[in-house]
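Design request, tokens follow.
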């Protein structure tokens, strides 16, 4: 009776493969759950902030363009 028999090593290799496959399946399940949670709970909140920030940026940009458009570096009118 040998402690390193091929049958024992083969069974050990099969168990390691089975454990690896279970871990990979659990990882895929966890990734799917995290993706669904993000889409349902996080993305709706962040989307509203992104839209708000985009609106603020557009508003500020319009003000800058208006100010530059009305800017006259030398005032030709005399004030008494």
């Amino acid at each position: 009776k040998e402690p390193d028999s091929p049958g024992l090593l083969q069974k050990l290799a099969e168990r390691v493969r089975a454990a690896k496959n279970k871990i990979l399946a659990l990882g895929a399940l966890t990734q799917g759950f995290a993706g669904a949670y993000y889409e349902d709970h996080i993305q709706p909140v962040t989307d509203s902030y992104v839209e708000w920030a985009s609106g603020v940026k557009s508003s500020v940009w319009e003000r800058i363009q208006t100010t530059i458009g009305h800017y006259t570096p030398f005032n030709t009118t005399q004030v008494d």
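Comment from the thread starter after seeing the answer: thanks! The CA atoms of residues 25 and 31 lie 10 Å apart.
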